[in-house]
Design a protein that fits this description.
mainly alpha; 8 helices; 69% helix
Amino acid sequence: QVSDIIYDNNNTLREKLLADKIGPSFAATLINFAKIKQLTIDDILDNNYTDDDIPKKENEKYSLICSLRLATEEEVEKVREFISDYLGEENLAIFDSMWIGDNDERALLIEQLDSTVNDMQN
């Protein structure tokens, strides 16, 4: 319900609707968070971002990782490089876990990508 209120209603009464559900302080915080421009998979694949676009706060990094988990098998290598370079290894581990889920083939792909990176570093 909260997500629908934030992203629907064309900004009509959404703060009031949210405040009624979760309180005015949380409503204002959530609305401000939802207004943050977030990078997309396409932005990352096209290198269409600047340092200012990289999230600095942990909750913003996590939100980005959650959206990036929708990367395809063809996109995941570039997405993982971005996460490793800009969001850190801990966030890469979180991403990997989300992206793999219960899919053994994806787990093998991540293992292959990690071996390739390790071989290149040695």
